[in-house]
Design brief:
Layout: H1 2-9, H2 17-25, E1 34-37, H3 40-50, E2 54-59, E3 72-76, H4 79-93, E4 100-105, E5 111-120, E6 124-131, H5 136-139, E7 142-146, H6 151-160, H7 178-194, E8 198-209, E9 212-215, E10 218-222
Antiparallel strand pairs: 1-4, 2-3, 2-4, 5-6, 5-8, 6-7, 8-9, 8-10
Length: 228
């Protein structure tokens, strides 16, 4: 994949959020509507086109933890708020090289999942699925499968987590589109098998908007493949 090769040639240890999601989307994983912009005027124009409210994020391959650095501004409901958020993020970034500012659709949904991939020394690429958002590290409600995955594997994975009931009709919300979720898990396994330089993938949160899971944030960690 050109995105990965270009990043390795620059000596990057990870992809930016924007490039991470471009890569995931090429493997059938739906991502939030967004655009990378380089100016305050472009941020305002993009926010108009996407439709308010929007989210703004500082975007760089050198920034993994944007929340801690206060590089995310959410639920921006006016164009004036978009302008202020753009200026605030640029100021907080300081000397860190910035690819631009991401302007994203504000995806609404009260169910948050996580999907990912880790490259195990013994088993190779393994796909992960579980409860996402702020509960990922606390509850550790996840399941794993070795790639490649077939439909049966992905369905079993989804049913194994302790919180599996939230995938069904839940508190007036429709059931999660399982065909789409299954294809996303299969695609994640294929990505791991295809791209030896991808060491780890973390998609968190994967917000369920209506019935449709959408990747709102993503990180792809890189490592030069070892020569055989």
């Amino acid at each position: 994949m050109d995105i990965v090769q270009a990043a390795l040639q620059k000596g990057q240890k990870s992809l930016s959020e924007y490039d991470s999601k471009r890569l995931l989307n090429s493997y059938g994983i739906p991502v939030v509507r967004e655009r990378l912009v380089q100016s305050r005027a472009a941020a305002v124009k993009t926010a108009k086109e996407i439709g308010l409210p929007v989210v703004l994020k500082g975007c760089s391959s050198e920034i993994a933890h944007k929340t801690e650095k206060k590089l995310i501004e959410v639920d921006l409901r006016t164009l004036k708020e978009v302008e202020r958020a753009y200026e605030a993020i640029v100021e907080r970034v300081g000397d860190t090289p910035l690819d631009g500012i991401l302007v994203q659709e504000m995806v609404k949904g009260s169910r948050e999942l996580v999907i990912g991939m880790i490259r195990d020394a013994q088993f190779g690429p393994c796909v992960m699925f579980g409860l996402g958002g702020i509960f990922t590290e606390v509850l550790k409600d996840v399941s794993f499968r070795i790639a490649p995955l077939e439909k049966r594997d992905a369905v079993e994975m989804a049913g194994e987590i302790k919180s599996a009931k939230i995938l069904g009709a839940f508190r007036g919300m429709p059931p999660v589109d399982m065909d789409l979720l299954v294809s996303m898990l299969i695609g994640m396994g294929k990505l791991g098998l295809d791209l030896d330089a991808v060491k780890e993938v973390d998609v968190n949160p994967l917000i369920v908007s209506g019935s449709r899971p959408v990747a709102v944030d993503a990180l792809v960690v890189l490592e030069e493949p070892k020569q055989a």
